[in-house]
Structure formats: C-alpha cells, structure tokens
Amino acid sequence: MDHSLSTAFRTSGNSLSYPDDHASKVALPRMQYSNLFKNHTDKAMNDLISQCIDKAGTASRRLILPEGEDSRIQAAAIQILQKSIATPVLLGDEQAIKAANPELQNIEILDTKAAPGTALEKALIGKRRKITKETVGEYLTLPAYRGAALLNNEDVDAMVAGAVLPTAKVIEAAFAVGPKTGVKTLSSFFLMSLQSPLEQVSRNLMFADCAINIEPDAEQLAEIAITSADSARRLLGTEPRVAMLSFSTHGSASHHSVTKVAQAVEIVREKAPEIFIEGELQVDTALSARVAETKLKNLGEVAGRANVLIFPDLNAGNIAYKLVQYCGGALATGPVLQGFAKPICDLSRGATVDDIVAAAAVTISMSI
Question: How far apart are CA 46 and CA 331, in angstroms?
C-alpha cells in the first residue's frame, strides 16, 4: 500500500472495523509483487513453500477462489489440485469458465448467477452492519462475499482472493467472516524468504503487521505479536522467536513510541509467557548475534535469532517488506490475514500463477 489506510480503515478501541458507508468507494492501491517465485534458483528459497505444499497434502481441505473467471486463477486451480494442496472451488459464470478453459473438467465450479439458498444467506446476515435480510442477496452476488458466506457455512476451509479484486474489497469481505473467538485485533503477515541472508540470519522470516493496523497501541501490538507467533508456529517448522522492533534497544532512546513497544512486550509476557519474545530491539540486534553481543549482556532466546519481526506501526512494516523484497530479492508471500475465524489470503493483482499456488499452500497450511 502506497498511501495511508486511514481512508479505508479505522480502529475502535482494540478492534479493527471497516466503515460500511466507505465500502463501495474505497479502492486501495495494490501491493505489487515482483515475479520472484518463478525466477528464484536458490533451492532454500522455495523450501518453505515446498514444506507448506507437503503439509497441505496431509489434509483434505477445500479452497475457495472467488475470481474463477481469471485465467491465472484457473491455471492455479489446476496446479493446486495436481499438487494435492487442496480441492479448489472456483466462483464465477460456470458456462463462461468452462468455455474459456476446457482443462477445468475436474475442478468444481460454483455459478455466482445461481440462487445462493437460505443456508448461505443465514451465514452472511448480520456479519456486517449493512448485511440484512433485505440486502443479503445483493452481497451474495459479490464473489468475495459469496466466498465469505461459504467459509461461514463451512462449505470450504480457506479463501485466496485479490488477483482481480482490490485489497479493500478482499479485507472488507474478510470482516464478514469475523475474528477467532477471543481475538480483538485482526492483522496480517508476510512470509519473507531471503535469497542470501548475511550474519546467519534466518532464511525465512515473518513480518507483521504490514497491511492492516496503522498505529496499533500497546495492547493491539501485543495481540499482533501473539497471533503472529501462532501463525509462525504453524508455518515455519521451528519455535517462533519474536522481536518487537523499534529504533531503540532496551531503553537506548526515549520516546513514546519506544515506551509503547516495551509495554507491548510486558503484555505478551503476561498473557502468553510461553512465547519467546524480546524488545524493544533494533532490527540489527534482533537478527544478528554479532550485533546483539555488542549491545546486550544476555542475548536470551531472541536477540540475534529472531524469526518473527513485529513492527511498531504500518509505516515501518509496509516499507520494510518492500525494501527486503525489491532491494534484497526476497520472496514475499502475503499478506496472509490472521486472527480471522478462517484462513484468508490477499493477492496482488499482478500475481502470477506460481504466486497464487504459493499463497494457496501457505493459506491451507494455516488451516491445519
């Protein structure tokens, strides 16, 4: 996102909400992805995605792809089925989809022109302020909302969208799925696979939050950290080591933003003492043991070994992932939404077939 999300999102207390009266007007600038997945030759670069594909194959999950009329989505659906990642389900004009791609004979297609039925209507009514008995039919003609209703009705297990729809529309529909029980702060992460990391930095890192919360307070930042640790545990195949980032390390600078990060660390330690977490830390201290040894007497479990980076605000997170992606050549998968009742991933409108397959593997892995 290249502009502030304040035009599209607002925070209310500790929870994030989307203004209904803005929903039809907002079209956020799309986060752009380079075609890195296809071009990377470093085997370690794609190991994590391969692990996600293998993990996804251990379960029988159904994946809704609301933009079924897009040729990239159709090609990705074929690969997703062939690789046993999930059973893909396409939404769209069934006749047009079959006419466009005869290779889809083994792919389930749900026609958006068909009447949704009372079960899907009930699964969506009341999930957003303006979704009422009178308006639910109109919402169910929108692919992402139809996908949300299918998730709510447990007809599918996860959703990947955004190859055609703008980010605002995907996240707007995701709010109709709602949060997991007990979650107040909905957030997102990018899975960053580094090409040639220095200083023995972990090859696979999780960056959060890079897409939703503009200026989280200490409570929200703590919940983002807890949710991200859970996501990392599912995906990275190793114990999450969470670094709460700042321009300060353990009080080396004084500012209200530093205090916020330090407070968030204490909240996490109180609410989830099992999580390895440290902060506030500068990013070099979090990633490099050599640097951490010069700044800290006790490195603990995180300093110099972090694999989950929690940024103090959206400015920092969004800028950081793009710098690492475009200047460092990292493979960026996401934003994967977290804290929602069902796994949902946004895509770039410039996403390649391989990007979509990778996103599907990560998203399905989140459901297991």
Answer: 9
DSSP E strands, 122-166: 158-161
Q: How far apart are CA 170 and CA 85, in angstroms?
A: 22
Residues of the chain where predicted confidence (pLDDT) is lower than 50: 1-45
Identify whether the C-beta of residue 206 lies closer than 8 Å to the C-beta of residue 309: yes
pLDDT tens column, 263-272 = 999 999 999 9
Alpha-carbon span 31 to 153, nearest angstrom? 30
Task: Count how many Cα atoms sit within 13 Å of the Cα of residue 177 in the half-sphere of its side chain.
Answer: 31
Residue 49 and residue 333: Cα distance in Å, rounded?
Answer: 9
Per-residue pLDDT at 5: 35
Q: What is the CATH number of the domain that holds 128?
A: 3.40.50.10950
Given CA atoms 252, 256, 262, 265 in this order, what sign does their dihedral have? negative
Question: Do residues 123 and 165 share a domain?
Answer: yes
**213-247: per-residue pLDDT in tens?**
999 999 999 999 999 999 999 998 899 999 999 99
Same domain, 237 and 318: yes
| Pair of tokens at residue 89 | 């389900």
Domain of 237, in residue numbers: 184-339
**In terms of domains, do 232 and 261 share one?**
yes
Give the type of residue at 129. R
Same domain for 280 and 195, yes or no, is yes
Is 11 inside a domain boundary?
no
Rounded-to-integer distance, Cα 226 and Cα 278, Å: 13
* Burial label, 221 (beta-carbon count in 10 A; 0-12, 13-18, 19+): buried
CA dihedral defined by 295, 300, 304, 309, rounded to 10 degrees?
A: -110
Query: Are residues 160 and 106 part of one domain?
Result: yes
pTM of this structure: 0.84
